[in-house]
Amino acid sequence: MAARRLLVLFGSQTGTAQDTxxxxxxxxxxxxxxxxxxxxDSYDVANLISELLVVFVCATTGQxxxxxxxxxxxxxxxxxxxxxxxxxxxxxxxxxxxxSSYPKFNFIAKKLHKRVLQLGGNPLLPVALGxxxxxxxxxxxxxxxxxALWDKILMLYPLPPGLEIISPDVRLPxxxxxxxxxxxxxxxxxxxxxxxxxxxxxxxLCPFAAPVVSNQRLTAQSHFQDVRxxxxxxxxxxxxxxAGDVVMVQPQNCPEDVQQFCQLLRLDPDRRFVLKPTEPGxxxxxxxxxxxxxxxxxxxxxxxxxxxxxxxxxxxxxxxTSELEREKLQEFSSAQGQEELYSYCNRPRRxxxxxxxxxxxxxxxxxxxxxxxxxPRIRPRAFSIASSMLAHxxxxxxxxxxxxYKTWLSKPRRGLCSTWLASLNPEQGxxxxxxxxxxxxxxxxxxxxxxxxxxxxxxxxxxxxxxIQERVAQGRRGNCLFFGCRQESKDxxxxxxxxxxxxxxxxxxxxxxxxxxxxKVYVQHRILENHRLVWELLSSRNxxxxxxxxxxxxxxxxxxxxxSVLQLEGGLSPSEAEEYLAALERSRRFQSETWS
Length: 596
What we know:
The chain is an alpha/beta fold. It has 20 helices and 22 strands. The strands form five sheets. Strands 1, 2, 3, 4, 5 and 6 form a six-stranded parallel beta sheet that branches. It is globular, with a radius of gyration of 26 Å. The mean pLDDT is 93.
């Protein structure tokens, strides 16, 4: 009989695909399958030809791009010299996680499914397209798809005689066992940061501890939104970047939350431990030192401020000593309880720590070795770099809106990373932030004579500040910026800087202050008003167009305004204008970077 072995490979950007892959791994173990769950780029892709059963779980990021941890796999899979029957032994299934408010919804999953099929793979099921926009989130698609998947897999690989599926009520062993070390054992050799010159370029596994040089509020004190211009010193880091690149920041939990968490779980924050994998071959978490203190684990690793996923409630219910709490947790983790879980957790954005407060008996019974199964790690946050090395050598600047909003919960919701960064005051001593740089989605033209049209409302202007600084330092003119905000007096970021560049002839600036008059005016209105200039730049001067900002209504409204310009000035029909814009996108003369 063929080995009952399943490989689950994931490409994840925010952690949802990884969480789903690990769920599939747990369900496989309950069916007595040998199962490995691995990030696509950690897996040796050359071994794929000898695999018999693989489930791919992948997200789509940005404008239809693969997540960072599957980019190498992606490049290999699309090599033209791969034989057309390379994967003919493989039974596979693809589960996609996306957001239907983006134009390239689940693009990566669809393309992956098609490519494995081209290479001779045998699909067990049609590709599943999970959607964040669904009222119940991606689980609305995942749940029924997984039922069908297990039916197929158990037909191919029936349960061995005498074995049954392990009930969901039975707790599976933890991924790692936790062993406390004696108080007098040697301390670990520092945190995983590079305050001195690094051996290689800083990365997620080895970030650079950059000193914060300045942390300046750009919006008026009376304005509801706190927006910061923060500057980091990257001298000696080996970091280089261009306009359009992104800085990744590794945030941490605040001391009050760490203290509360330790109290709830009755943990001594200063106790140190080492981790040992339960199953041979399981890698230890690379971002944790060994030995590690409980305080370090909770401060730097466990994402106690994230909104917990369904898998959290599922595992938590296994520890419950209170019948009342256990019943509620089981309801939240059942397929039937998803609407109620959404109302309790997702809609009000309740955090993991707050949920633990609501289930105190269960929380105090959590075995510490299950913490790494229960709570995901803190993900790094991406910020568009808002400066140029040509204007600010050895510096990185970011434009950051501090995330704070109200739900029906009494305590305001706060973004983990932006709240932490906003709290850092370089005047109070040496304040450092772990960071590294990666290539961004926006690429600016290398030809000095190519003009650029930049449309960046709000903090969407950040990458354009970098591009303008870079181009001005190179003596390039032909920089046209459409900037939008609420009020000129309150949130017109970098006003003096823009006005100086306008005076010097380096910048053409159009502003839309939406609340400074009765009729709301947005960037799309300014594009329409300046249709002649926009058309002339596009048709006669081969201009490139860039769009950055919030992904809600703005990108569609801007695309519509550009199509109107093409119709008004270029005499194109609506369908021709749409095709013209699509052609600009294909040739990378129209690029956008939006976020929700």
